[in-house]
Design brief:
The complex is a heterodimer of chains A (151) and B (73). In chain A, 33% of the residues lie in helices and 34% in strands. Chain A is α+β, with helices and mostly antiparallel strands. In chain A, a hairpin with a 3-residue loop joins strand 4 and strand 5. The N and C termini of chain A lie far apart (35 Å). With 73 residues, chain B is α+β, with helices and mostly antiparallel strands. Helices cover 12% and strands 27% of the residues of chain B. A five-stranded mixed sheet of chain B has the order 2-1-5-3-4, with no helix packed on it. In chain B, strand 1 and strand 2 form a beta hairpin. Chain B starts with a strand and ends in a 6-residue tail after the last strand. The chains are: A alpha+beta (151), B alpha+beta (73).
């Protein structure tokens, strides 16, 4: 996975969506992928939050991502991802995922599984920003598979 | 000696402990008021690999990470 940096990027603060997605499109449109799907997550204005904030543990994020890249490669596809670290305010983007695949069906299925597994397993912690303070989004968080062995 | 790190919202300084397995770590953390309530929902990694069992011997220099529930995106 020597080229992971080309596929997985972490940015401080909000994502420059047009720049990132245009870069991916221009980079991969000539690679004979018949289907390129991007998913852009945008922070909603709700529950009086000013925005969201994120912590990331990169060593395990990298291995999680590599296992998805391997799974995608087995179907002749690739996965791409960009995520924010730190604060991202309402109506900005903190997360972009993409799949490039020769086949439409593979891309549609992979983007669904990739995004859902990301939400449940990737080592990223979310906080609401309320009155300039970070409040852990405990109720929206999911325990990683295998959690609880020390209890 | 092994290093214990608490990730994300747990908000606790790293610990260095002289232990040889995860059962010992479990006993120590259960009696730690700052961490005990997190143990039910925390995943555990040894040297950045997630583990699913307590039956693992620890070596000098190992790094153990506690990962509380996640929510990316």
């Amino acid at each position: 996975m020597g080229k992971r940096k080309e596929y997985l990027q972490i940015f401080d603060g909000s994502l420059a969506v047009e720049e990132i997605t245009n870069f991916w499109y221009n980079k991969y449109k000539n690679s004979n992928f018949g289907a390129i799907i991007t998913f852009v997550g945008v922070v909603r204005d709700e529950n009086q939050i000013e925005g969201l904030s994120f912590d990331i543990y990169e060593p395990i994020l990298n291995s999680w991502f590599d296992s998805w890249q391997k799974k995608a490669n087995e179907k002749d596809a690739i996965v791409l991802m960009a995520h924010s670290r730190g604060n991202v305010f309402n109506h900005e983007s903190s997360y972009i995922a993409a799949v490039c695949s020769p086949k439409r069906r593979v891309a549609l299925e992979l983007i669904d599984e990739f995004v859902e597994d990301f939400k449940a397993q990737a080592p990223i912690w979310k906080y609401d920003i309320i009155n300039n303070q970070r409040v852990y989004a405990k109720d929206r968080s999911t325990a990683i598979i295998g959690a609880g062995i020390l209890s | 000696m092994v290093k214990i790190e608490f990730l994300g919202p747990i908000n606790k300084e790293n610990m260095d402990l002289d232990i040889s397995n995860l059962s010992q770590l479990s006993e120590i953390l259960k009696s730690d008021n700052e961490v005990s309530s997190w143990l039910d929902t925390c995943a555990v990694a040894i040297n950045d690999t997630l583990v699913c069992t307590k039956n693992i011997e620890l070596k000098d220099g190992d790094k153990i990470s506690l990962l509380p529930p996640v929510c990316g995106g």
